[in-house]
Each structure stands twice: as structure tokens, then as C-alpha cells.
Records
---
Amino acid sequence: MMNASSLQLINKHQLVRDFSSLVDKDRRDTATMLVYVAEIDRRKLYLEHACPSMFAFCTKRFHMSEAVAARRIRAGRATCRFPCIFDMIARGELHLSGVHQLAGHLTEDNHQEVLQRAKHRSMREIEKLIAEISPKPDVPASVRALPIRRVQSTPKMLEDIPAAHPIAGQRPAIERLGVSSAPSQGSKLAAGGSKPNSRVTPLSPRRYKIQVTIGQEGRDKLSELQDLLSHQIPDGDLAAILDRALDALLVETRKKKASFTENPRSVRKRSNRKGRAIPAQIRREVFERDQGRCVFVDACGRRCLSGWQVEFHHVVPYARGGSHGADNIELRCRAHNQYEAELEYGARFMASRRN
Ligand SMILES: [Zn+2]
């Protein structure tokens, strides 16, 4: 068995020679890995292994870290598009992190030149190269109002404060919300264009920090909620309000999701004959039974469990006489619903319908 102490007796030249051949092998393996990742991704083989995406396949089935999986998938797709990347990685001229960074900036026209310029470059140098080929606008100067410290006195209800009191008339929204107000344009750019600037970070077990940028309307709603809930949540605690808001939204969304309400007229019309619509009661029953998650099962009996874009799926297709009974309907994520439909109707027919 190999461990660090087993190398202690090897002379230094041999040690470096071995290291060098390990590095060479690692590079060739990395290049080969990308081709495999790209081909499995292209054939969507992850679907039949109960994964809704290549990313889930790498992280759930092969226990890669999220970062490694993302790098390999992105670099694999780039290698599929520009096959010269394979040789450059195998020869050690490009590293995986570099390809991952460059992938979104390569085009048919520029890839030869850009990849040559990225040869043997560090990450910092590659970032510079990207800034040159896809320059971003300057970050505008912005002035940020710092959050005012929350007063540590016993919380008082606004009604208790005499009208002459300095804060009674105004709404100390910034103070109570515990947020800093940033110019909206600045915060949008900081968020990286249209991508929402939000992040959930675990702090300690079962404690999470949520950072999010909201607009003026959202802030006004929060402020109004703080007022409306000021009897139950006297200190206007944002976490307590968010928790209540999430509860309310969950109840509403679960209800909607489970019994997607049809146009009442068409339901009545359809109830006379056997229609395509699944009755609301059956939807509720199925949604609850499957716990809102995809129940696609692969050959090894592993369940997908994705809760992303779940849809109702007929086990025996409706067109082949399958019923609307709960025993014939199961939840599927969109990827698996489509996969099974493609198996059923043929990929070509589905592609023509999607177009
Ligand atoms: Zn699924």
C-alpha cells in the first residue's frame, strides 16, 4: 500500500522522475475524462440513472464536489466544441480551471488565438486575457448608506410613542429593516447583470445567513409588514418576518402546485367525457404521496428525488388508454417526464413538437 512514509527511502532523483510521470498521466487522464463527461452529457445518459442533469450525475452518483463537477462539465462541453483543447490539456498546456474560465468566451473565430495565448498561463493571467477579449464596463462610483445600528432598548410599539417624539412621524425603515440602501443601478451591476444577487451561507449548524438585493417595492412591503406585525414581532426582526412570509407562501404554492386549477368551464365541459385534465383531487393526492418530488427509479432502484419543475406523469400514457387514477399518475421532474415521453413517442416526434 502506498503512503507518504513508503517514499522516504526513494532517492530524490527517482522521486522527481516519478512525480513528473504522474503529472503527465494525470493530464492525459484529465483530457480523457472531459471527453467522457461530454459524451455522457450529450447522450443524456444521466437520465436513465435517475439523475435530472449531468451535474447531479457527477455529484450524486460519483460524489464529485460541486466545483469539480461544474469545471469538468463546462470544460467537457468546450472540448466537444473545440477539440484542440483535448491535446492542449493532455500536453499540460492548459489547465482545467483555465478552460473552465475561458469556456464562455471562446467562439469559432477567436478560439485558436485565445487558446494559444492562454498556453501555460496562470489563472490571474487568464483572467486578464478574458478582461481583454470580453471587457466589462467600469463599475460606477457609488455611495452606500451604512445601516444604522439597531437601538438596543426595549422595543416599543409605534402607537406608544407620543406624536411629538422625533421618530414617531417618520418611518425608520432602514433602521428596522437592518439593510443598507444602495443605489439600485450599482447593486444591479454588483449582482452581475440579470443574475439575482442572493446567497445562502451556512454559518453554524442550523443557522444560515441570507444575503439578497431587493427593489424599493420589496423594501416597502417589508416595512409595511414590520408595522402590521409589530404586536407579534415588536423588534421588527427580519428573520421572524421572513419565516412567516415563507410559511404563507409555502401553503399557497403547495395548494396551487397540487391542484393546478383549470379553467372551471373547461373542467365542467370535460367532466362529461374523458378529458386530458387530471382532476384536482387526484393531483393533490399524487403530490402528497410523492412528497412533491420526482419518483423516477433507475435499473438499480435509485430514485431521482429532484423537486425541480415537477410535473404529473401518466405511467400508462393517456393516449394508450391510461387512466387519471392516482395509481396511474406519478410525479416526474421535467427532465424525466420528457425522457419518458421521448422513449414513448420517439425522440424525433418530440423534437418536432418542441419546435
Ligand atoms: Zn427526475
---
Amino acid sequence: MTTHTLPGKMIDQRSFSAQSTDVWSSHLVRGSEISDALTMLSDGPCGSDGRREALVVHPSSVEPGLGLSPGIAVVFGVLLPGERTRPRRHNASSFTMALSGSAQARIGDRAFNVRARDCWNTPGMRVETILNNGTEPFTYVSYSNSPLLRKLEVFYEEYDPAEGEEAAADSQIASTYSSKIASAKEAAGGAIPVGDSGAMLLPYEHLIDPDFVESRPLLWQWDEVAEHLGIVRSLKTGYTGRPLWCLYNPATGIRNGTTFSFFATITAAGPNFTGPAHKHVSAAINYILDGSGYSIVDGVRLEWGAGDIMLSAPGWAPHGHATKDDGAVILTIQDHPLHIGMESLIWQEDIKGGPILTLGSEAGFGTNLATVQNKTTA
Ligand SMILES: [Fe+2]
């Protein structure tokens, strides 16, 4: 096929063919490498942002927006006793798990006292400060959607907003503009139908004041999460789902997210649990908290153990995971809610010819949980 260039920097598309997705390889970083990096960060000076952080970068990642997957940035960080990060806000949303030590995480108007494996989300444009108020180094792993924003050239970030500026700005906006907003939308009216296909017209006043759900920082304390892991750990090979809980943020609604871009799940799999092979366009990053196992990703076998982090499911790569004799506890981050928002979350539970469904836009899959439970209780 010959490609012709048309006038005005336009490309002739008549010779196109259907395109398949180029898939990054899986990529694993050993826990020992992460420990070494945290030691180096502890021994050196703080960054200008008050943070000691290392970004985990996939070999295929390119600027702008480096990440472990094309849209997910992963950082490991450490704060020494008494250190605090500079107050920062940006329009990326993030999820963080404490790994060791203790600290206070201040996000917007909330303050969480956290220790190992406690998790929190930081919504976009909420000021975050982390203070190590303990006697040991505080370490953490944090995930954000900043790579995607950087690729879109819309990543916004600022430091040291004036004390109370965020709250003051919010209240000022509320008092100054709320009556104008109400009267403007009232004057404009609502959506009106066009034709009989369901198409409608919407006034501009709604575009600059869309309906919203307040997005708040939430805390998932590990002690409470751990109480619920036994029930999923009891599921055995043959269960067609995954033995996990999603750390659910109700503000994300049907996106089933922890943030509006990511879900975070805690898998607790018993010994020698083998999950079914499947694939999805959401990218998955597994951080192994306990135990060991292996994954087959795009035909490649990867052995993993506690402390390792891996791009375990590059978007649309077939993959499956299995534990060894000691089972495993795994934190998984996936950009699943982002894809639901884009109507792009295609998913295939059975890679041997099963249907490809667009989750969040049509009815999805089921599991054999009811059958498995009946067998357990019979
Ligand atoms: Fe998966």
C-alpha cells in the first residue's frame, strides 16, 4: 500500500488496515532492588519537594510521562523521623499504601494517622502533606495517573499554597458564585430533545457547572481490611473469579474505583491457587505483600515473591497468576475506572474464544461463586 500525503499536513487514510494494540512486555522489579533504592534515598539529601522518592520506570516508557505502565506512575518513598513533605497539590489523583513506620498524611481537610499497609487516596487538587511523626523511617508506595496527564500536556502542579488557601478559596467560591450558578442554570434551562433518537441539546451553563460527586480522601486501615481477607482466601482453584476485595471509593460510582482512574485491590489467595487466563485493556501492576507464586504473561513465565513489584498485565496481554505453597497477599492497581469513563474497557474472561465485552457499557461476566459456595457449605 502506498501512503500519500495530502496538502495541509493531512495524511491519506484510504490505505488503512485494522490496527492491533502494541503491548509492552511484563516487567518485574525485585524487592531487593527497591530496598536498596530506599536505603540510598535515606542516606542522601531530600528533594526540593521534601520527598525522597524513586520512580519505577518500564524500559519501554518514554517522556512525557514516565511510568511502569503507559498511564500509571509508581513511586517508592521514604521520610526520616521528623521530616515532612512540602504541601503539594496537582490535578493527578493518587493512591498510597504505607509500608513501614508511621506518619500523618494530611490531605485537604482530613488527617490520617497511618502505619504499615494502611492506604489512602488523594483526590485531584487536594493539598497533600506527609509528616513522619514516628521514630522509624516511614516508607510508602504511591501510584498516580500523572503519566497520562503529562502525555496530554495538561499536568498541573503547585507547592506551598498559602495556609488555608484551599478552604478559603472553596468557601469564597461557594458564597460568591453559588447564587449566580443557580440562577444561570435556571435561566438556561435543562437539556432539550432533538429528534427521536435520544439526542439532546445542553446549554453552556451546564458545561461549566456539571453535576458532581464530592471526592474525598478516604482511609482503608489495614487492621480492618485484613479482617475480611479470610473469606476470599478460602476460595480454591476452580473458582472462576479472583480472590480479592476492591478498596472501593463510593464517589467513583459505577466506575468501581479507589480513585477515578484506578482501582486498588487486595488479593488474598490460599496455597496453590491458580486463576484463569484472561485479558483486559486496563493495565495491572501487582505489588507482592506476602507469599510467592508465578504469572504467565503473554507466554512468558515470571516468578515472584514478597517485596517484588511487576507490570503483571500490560493492556490486552493474556495473563494468569498462580500462588505456591505459601499463598500470597497482593496489592493490585489497575486503570480500570479510567477505561470505564472512556467506554474503552474491553475484557475477555475466557481467552479461548470467549466474548469480548465492554465493561461498564454493557452487561459483564459472571463467576461460579454460587456453585463454589454451595459445595463449601454442602
Ligand atoms: Fe487480569
